[in-house]
């Protein structure tokens, strides 16, 4: 069969070809900033990538603000106005739309935070000043750990270098007066599935870096208290199982004392930030398939309810204490909630025909499993079913209507998409997240297969009309499902993997194999090989398309190349598309569209609609 689906253009019907355009992604709220007088500045992603909109007091629509060529971030600028990061500089935007350039940002910017004090603008930044590597120079292992520079800007002093930190640091947060900063330092110089790290801080008065945690395990963000009195941070302080133990929110004083767990374990924290009062933090979590938002108190006392809807964006606060945020749910597309108003975001009206339904079934061993099914109005009950296997596997499945738009080209073509939260997913407690340790590609695959059986019995799928696709672990699951079952008619594996030990040694990330299988030993044991797809490549009979970036540091391109060669030799319909310059996932707009078009074309060819 040879290399398949590599022509420059993929032919699709015009109505479907248009639906693969990334410009049709839903707009989402990246940040909301009060502008004074009840007006709000809203930074949007999606079609309006980097676009700024103004929501006037009492208004029911968003008004475009022009004059910026791309917007990276926004912050409040005192009681009125906002600070906008755009075009390598920071600008002050007035409520009437006037803007003024404040300062140019240094080249090599990694992370920054901004405050507006009595003296004006204060900026903290992590900057990578390394020279571009010589492509002809030899590379050395072990590689020396390089550094980034912590800098600070104030109008009276300009840019000042404060300290050095290991390369890979990020997530800088700064107190309101700019005197205290905190950031995350990764434990390993290579990307890890465990995402282990520590938090470090810098006090302008002390003039030196302070290590704030030891053994933080898997980490997320950290936020300095507005008054600089302490830090709230996300971590699990887990050494043995950092990947599959949910992270908590922790509070500690700047001196490192009084550390307190605010969330108690087992919860999947999605986002958090400071509340209106300095002793409260809002937190959004995923519980099962549901997204919920609440308030936690720093002293450990019981929190309070937030609103009757979850916050799916960072929360902003008006002077009267009103919370403003983006919200959505299984039946509602994203909208901005402020008081008793809900202001819709652009584009949602184009997808009113896309629906989502939650499903629940029982796996063969008795475990209760949940998932969601996406469809378009008018789709026949017996339409082909495509299983979307999520990555991670320690990640979430959320019953949000906007997620249906991600599959718009498949749904409008006439497919139904099934997204199962198989064991190993987050949001169902630590025991569930750890449920596929030692049995990857076995028990979690049985969860998927039993979910398909459930939909077949409910009349929502036909047993001989099912395909599967997914990225990362979902790519692995696609390969595994085609190799050890005959349930799926066709598959598409995006940046997947097929051999754990090989991936461990090629990437340098030992945390994945150590936690999910066993610590490395030689020779590799039978237990260490039981989840691999490589020994089963000779069993794949179904057509398989693979898509991969040539700079993927997590699931390396070689994994897909080997799978392609094995299937090509056996004359199985197989294709491999390699995107230059892409890492783990596709970022370039043209590649994202090309990927969507090829996935749809593959299923239309090998799992055709009636």
Structure description:
This protein is of the alpha+beta class. 15% of the residues lie in helices and 34% in strands. Strand 11 and strand 12 (158-166) form a beta hairpin. It is globular, with a radius of gyration of 25 Å. Mean pLDDT is 93; it is low at 1-7.
Extract low-pLDDT stretches: 1-7
Helix content: 10-25%
Spatial shape: globular
Secondary-structure content class: alpha+beta
For this structure, the quaternary state is single chain
Mean pLDDT: 93
Strand portion, in percent?
Answer: 25-35%
Q: How much is the radius of gyration in Å?
A: 25 Å
Largest sheet properties: 8 strands, mixed
Query: What order do the strands of the largest sheet run in, or round the barrel if closed?
Result: 28-29-31-30-32-33-34-35
Set out the fold topology.
Layout: H1 14-18, E1 28-36, E2 39-45, E3 52-55, E4 63-65, E5 73-76, E6 82-86, E7 89-93, E8 99-104, E9 109-117, E10 120-127, E11 147-154, E12 158-166, E13 170-174, E14 180-186, E15 197-203, E16 208-211, E17 219-224, E18 230-235, E19 248-253, E20 260-261, E21 268-274, E22 280-287, E23 290-297, E24 316-317, E25 323-327, E26 335-338, E27 341-344, E28 354-362, E29 368-376, E30 385-389, H2 408-413, E31 416-421, H3 430-433, H4 443-457, E32 466-471, H5 473-484, E33 491-494, H6 500-507, H7 511-516, H8 526-529, E34 544-549, H9 557-569, E35 574-579, H10 589-606
Parallel strand pairs: 30-31, 30-32, 32-33, 33-34, 34-35
Antiparallel strand pairs: 1-2, 2-3, 3-4, 5-6, 6-7, 7-8, 9-10, 10-11, 11-12, 13-14, 14-15, 15-16, 17-18, 18-19, 19-20, 21-22, 22-23, 24-25, 25-26, 26-27, 28-29, 29-31
């Amino acid at each position: 069969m040879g290399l398949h689906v590599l022509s420059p253009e993929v032919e699709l019907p015009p109505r479907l070809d248009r639906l693969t355009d990334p410009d049709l992604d839903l707009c989402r709220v990246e940040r909301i900033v009060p502008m004074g007088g009840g007006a709000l500045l809203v930074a949007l992603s999606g079609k309006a990538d980097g676009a700024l909109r103004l929501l006037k007091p009492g208004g029911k629509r968003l008004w475009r603000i022009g004059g910026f060529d791309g917007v990276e971030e926004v912050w409040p600028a005192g009681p009125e106005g906002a600070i906008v990061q755009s075009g390598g500089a920071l600008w002050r935007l007035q409520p009437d739309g006037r803007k003024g350039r404040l300062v140019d940002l240094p080249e090599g910017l990694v992370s920054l935070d901004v405050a507006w004090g009595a003296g004006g603008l204060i900026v903290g930044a992590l900057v990578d000043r390394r020279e571009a590597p010589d492509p002809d120079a030899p590379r050395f292992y072990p590689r020396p750990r390089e550094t980034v520079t912590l800098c600070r800007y104030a109008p009276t002093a300009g840019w000042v270098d404060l300290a050095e930190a290991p390369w890979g640091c990020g997530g800088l947060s700064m107190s309101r007066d700019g005197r205290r900063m905190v950031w995350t330092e990764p434990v390993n110089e290579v990307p890890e599935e465990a995402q282990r790290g520590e938090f470090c801080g810098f006090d302008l008065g002390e003039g030196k870096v302070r290590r704030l945690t030891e053994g933080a395990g898997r980490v997320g963000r950290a936020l300095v208290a507005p008054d600089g009195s302490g830090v709230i941070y996300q971590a699990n302080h887990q050494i043995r199982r950092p990947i599959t133990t949910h992270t908590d929110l922790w509070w500690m004083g700047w001196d490192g004392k009084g550390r307190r767990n605010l969330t108690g374990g087992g919860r999947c924290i999605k986002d958090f930030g400071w509340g209106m009062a300095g002793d409260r933090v809002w937190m959004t979590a995923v519980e099962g398939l549901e997204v919920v938002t609440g308030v936690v108190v720093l002293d450990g006392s019981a929190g309070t309810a937030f609103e009757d809807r979850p916050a799916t964006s960072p929360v902003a606060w008006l002077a009267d204490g009103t919370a403003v945020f983006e919200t959505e749910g299984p039946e509602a597309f994203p909208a901005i909630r402020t008081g008793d108003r809900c202001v819709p975001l652009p584009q949602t009206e184009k997808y009113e025909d896309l629906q989502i339904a939650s499903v629940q079934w029982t796996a063969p061993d008795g475990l209760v499993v949940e998932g969601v099914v996406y469809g378009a109005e008018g789709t026949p009950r017996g339409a082909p079913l495509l299983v979307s296997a999520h990555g991670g596997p320690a990640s979430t499945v959320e019953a949000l209507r906007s997620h249906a738009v991600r599959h718009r080209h498949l749904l409008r073509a006439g497919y139904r998409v099934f997204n199962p939260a198989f064991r190993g997913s987050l949001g169902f407690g630590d025991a569930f997240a750890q449920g596929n340790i030692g049995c990857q590609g076995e028990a979690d695959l049985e969860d998927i297969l039993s979910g398909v059986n459930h939909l077949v019995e409910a009349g929502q799928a036909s047993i001989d009309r099912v395909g599967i696709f997914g990225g990362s672990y979902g790519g692995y699951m696609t390969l595994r499902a085609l190799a050890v079952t005959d349930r799926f008619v066709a598959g598409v594996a995006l940046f997947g993997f097929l051999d754990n030990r090989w991936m461990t040694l090629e990437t340098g990330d030992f945390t994945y194999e150590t936690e999910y299988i066993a610590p490395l030993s030689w020779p590799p044991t039978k237990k260490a090989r039981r989840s691999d797809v490589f020994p089963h490549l000779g069993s794949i009979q179904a057509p398989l398309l693979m898509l991969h970036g040539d700079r993927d540091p997590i699931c390396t391109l070689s994994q897909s190349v080997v799978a392609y060669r094995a299937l090509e030799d056996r004359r199985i319909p197989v294709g491999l598309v390699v995107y230059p310059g892409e890492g783990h996932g596709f970022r370039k707009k043209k590649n994202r569209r090309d990927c969507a078009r090829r996935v749809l074309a593959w299923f239309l060819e090998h799992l055709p609609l009636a």
